[in-house]
Prior knowledge:
By secondary structure, this protein is α+β, with helices and mostly antiparallel strands. Helix content is about 30%, strand content about 40%. A 10-stranded antiparallel beta sheet has the order 1-2-3-4-5-8-7-6-9-10, sandwiched between helices. The longest helix has 25 residues, at about 1-25. Residues about 5-30 have low confidence and may be disordered.
Amino acid sequence: MLRKRHIFRFIWTVCLVLLCTVMSTTADAKSVVSEKFRSGPWLGKVFYDASGKGFQSCGIWARNHSGDWLGFLLSGDGNFRLSLYNEKWQLPENFTFDSIALLDRKFKYELKGRRTSPEQIDFEMKHTLKEIELFQAGALFQITTPFGPKAFSLRGTRKALNKLIQCRAEKLLYSQRGNVSR
């Protein structure tokens, strides 16, 4: 029993490392990931410009039962984006689509999805603080995609989004001081 648990942990760790590698290359062709962090089931990354010096954003992702990843990105200028990722997707250049999303079946969002890589779609959120607070308190997020409806548990989002906000604040502070990271 103990051996099966170790094998599962090893496989899960390898999958997470591979995902972080793939997602770091798909986040933006001009971005570099130099730091990673974790909050429960959520995996976080810090993105810098191509030189590795200019802070761009912090992002955090968690996977659902069917292999899709839901992410939240908070940029240096305060923009809040929602992100969907699936390694099996092959989205065409300049791909956009309209989507309906539900948060806890109470809050309805009409979103415009935009391809940021062949495997990733981002959605710009309008009211950053309000949206973060709603997602922190949420339990279930559902969204329509060109690949059918997707559902995500929001377990752990309160801590994960707090970590995301903390990441952005720290990186902005360091970049204002002229430091690259940490």
